[in-house]
């Protein structure tokens, strides 16, 4: 049985059927149809991450706090879905390239952070914490930040992303050198424990993190090389898909933090990283073994996934992923995490092998109620059908408007009016799908879920 989100039938014309998931972001004077090209190697790397089953959440306080070399290694050598959760957007920092400060600087630093993720292969999230500048102590931080609210946001992010391990950039004490830094480590430890507590926040489902580890360095401790409790990781290595070393990829990502003057020379030599346990019982050392098989996928799925990644024929590749979907649907429920992850795999496969572009844009730049969206296909040679449009809010499950029969989309587009709660902020998730003109029909349903929404506009990644 082929699952309803991935069905192939014979026909002379290519079809794409989509469910649009409209995310809550805030509308300003931005372009909502930002196109970011993705080459085959990058997309294949992303599919390997989704199929590996490994996930890491890296937590720190500001844009530029993250270890881009380590994120590059996690994402491309370990093939782990790696997300950086920055508590703030850095609006309290300096600006070495312009006059923008405060909120305007936060906008710049957010985009620099996203540019870094596009290079190192990671994903990006934020909380609502405000960067109010340098803080001497964590005690001062908690007089300005709402601890309970940030804790809730962090727990929900953990439960949504379901990381195996959480890595912090800083220790949960004064060695962090900045109150924000210390607070980020404290939140990571507290939230990891609470994420597994079924009595905490009954709006989301519990998730058990295996452990929280501090990504320490000899800057903090000169004796790390001889510390039996520290895990050592050598980041040297060459990525054949991306054509460079993990260190070089990380250095290129680091250089995106331009307003902070954080550009670095490319270093393709050895790079040592160290980890010390802060919380949990999980075996990080075994998790970091790039030769181990993912426990999440059955051997059949793992073998089939590897085969599909190597297929060069577009039609056969998508057909193979449909077969994987058949196995998946027989093994697990559509609401399960594994099922939803394989939906993402299918979407990324289409990103590699397709030629159809679909965009969704607001007719007006700002509005309260209702909203009018324009949906259009940018490839008139392929028929595109929209199955539904969903509109979630921050505190409620999304409502879905289904089209029966599905709405055919042309390059001229069509408009659709959506009823929104008066208190909702709305923006769009631009959905881009490309499909070769072979004999196939693809139906892809992105199931709406309640989540904390990443407030970036126009970002494809979740």
In short:
The protein has helices spanning 40-52, 68-76, 103-120, 138-144, 147-161, 179-195, 246-254, 284-287, 299-310, 314-331, 337-353; strands at 15-21, 55-60, 81-86, 123-126, 165-168, 211-216, 231-234, 238-239, 244-245, 272-280, 358-362, 371-377, 383-393, 396-409, 414-418, 441-444.
Topology:
Blueprint (H helix, E strand, L loop, with lengths): L14 E7 L18 H13 L2 E6 L7 H9 L4 E6 L16 H18 L2 E4 L11 H7 L2 H15 L3 E4 L10 H17 L15 E6 L14 E4 L3 E2 L4 E2 H9 L17 E9 L3 H4 L11 H12 L3 H18 L5 H17 L4 E5 L8 E7 L5 E11 L2 E14 L4 E5 L22 E4 L18
Parallel strand pairs: 1-13, 1-16, 2-3, 2-5, 3-4, 5-6
Antiparallel strand pairs: 6-10, 7-10, 8-9, 11-12, 12-15, 13-14
Any overview of this molecule?
This protein has 462 residues and is α/β, with parallel strands linked by helices. It folds into 2 domains: 205 residues, no CATH class; 234 residues, 3-Layer(aba) Sandwich (Rossmann fold). It has 11 helices and 16 strands. Strands 4-3-2-5-6-10-7 form a 7-stranded mixed β-sheet, with helices on both faces. A 4-stranded mixed β-sheet has the order 14-13-1-16, covered by helices on one side. Strands 11-12-15 form a 3-stranded antiparallel β-sheet, with no helix packed on it. Strand 5, helix 6 and strand 6 form a beta-alpha-beta unit.
The pLDDT mean sits at 72
Number of helices: 11
- The low-pLDDT segments are 1-37, 293-302, 392-397, 422-462
The sequence of SSEs as H and E is: EHEHEHEHHEHEEEEHEHHHHEEEEEE
Q: What best-fitting shape do the alpha-carbon axes yield?
A: globular
Q: Largest sheet at a glance?
A: 7 strands, mixed
How much of the polypeptide forms β-strand, as a percent range?
A: 15-25%
**Cα Rg:** 22 Å
**Count of folded domains:** 2
Supply the CATH class of the largest domain: Alpha Beta
CATH architecture of the largest domain: 3-Layer(aba) Sandwich
The helical percent reads 25-40%
Oligomer: single chain
Class by alpha and beta content: alpha/beta
N-to-C CA distance: 29 Å
Tell me the CATH topology of the largest domain.
Answer: Rossmann fold
Question: What's the CATH superfamily of the largest domain, by name?
Answer: LmbE-like
Q: How many strand units?
A: 16
């Amino acid at each position: 049985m082929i699952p309803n989100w991935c069905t192939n039938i014979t026909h002379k014309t290519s079809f794409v059927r989509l469910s649009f998931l409209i995310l809550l972001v805030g509308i300003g004077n931005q372009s909502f149809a930002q196109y970011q090209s993705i080459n085959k190697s990058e997309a294949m790397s992303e599919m390997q991450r989704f199929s590996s089953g490994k996930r890491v959440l890296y937590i720190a306080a500001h844009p530029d706090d993250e270890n881009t070399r380590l994120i590059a290694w996690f994402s491309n050598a370990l093939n782990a879905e790696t997300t950086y959760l920055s508590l703030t957007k850095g609006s309290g920092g300096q600006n070495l390239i312009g006059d923008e400060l405060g909120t305007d600087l936060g906008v710049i630093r957010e985009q620099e952070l996203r540019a870094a993720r596009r290079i190192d292969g990671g994903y990006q999230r934020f909380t609502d914490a405000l960067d109010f500048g340098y803080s001497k102590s964590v005690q001062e931080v908690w007089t300005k930040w709402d601890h309970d609210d940030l804790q809730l946001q962090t727990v929900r992010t953990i439960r949504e992303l379901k990381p195996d391990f959480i890595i912090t950039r800083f220790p949960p004490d004064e060695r962090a050198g900045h109150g924000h830094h210390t607070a980020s480590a404290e939140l990571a430890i507290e939230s990891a424990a609470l994420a597994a507590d079924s009595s905490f926040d009954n709006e989301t489902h519990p998730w058990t993190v295996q452990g929280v580890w501090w990504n320490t360095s000899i800057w903090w401790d000169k004796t790390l090389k001889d510390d039996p409790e520290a895990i050592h990781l050598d980041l040297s290595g060459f990525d054949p898909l991306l054509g460079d070393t993990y260190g070089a990829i990380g250095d290129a990502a680091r250089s995106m933090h331009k307003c902070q003057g954080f550009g670095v020379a490319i270093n393709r030599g050895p790079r040592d990283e160290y980890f010390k346990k802060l919380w949990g019982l999980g075996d990080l050392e075994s998790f970091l073994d790039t030769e181990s098989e993912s426990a999440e996928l059955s051997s059949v799925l793992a073998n089939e996934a590897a085969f599909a990644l190597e297929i060069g024929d577009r039609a056969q590749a998508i057909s193979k992923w449909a077969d994987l979907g058949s196995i998946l649907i027989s093994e697990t429920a559509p609401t399960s995490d594994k099922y939803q992850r394989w939906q993402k795999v299918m979407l990324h496969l289409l990103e590699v092998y397709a030629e159809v572009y679909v965009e969704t844009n607001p007719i007006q730049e700002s509005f309260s109620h209702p909203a009018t969206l324009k949906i259009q296909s940018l490839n008139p040679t392929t028929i595109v059908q929209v199955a539904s449009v969903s509109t979630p809010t921050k505190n409620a499950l999304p409502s879905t408007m289904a089209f029966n029969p599905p709405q055919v989309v042309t390059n001229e587009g069509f408009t659709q009016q959506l009823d929104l709660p008066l208190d909702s902020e709305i923006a769009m998730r631009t959905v881009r799908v490309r499909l070769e003109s072979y004999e196939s029909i693809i139906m892809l349903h992105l199931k709406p879920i309640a989540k904390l929404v990443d407030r970036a506009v126009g970002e494809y990644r979740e």
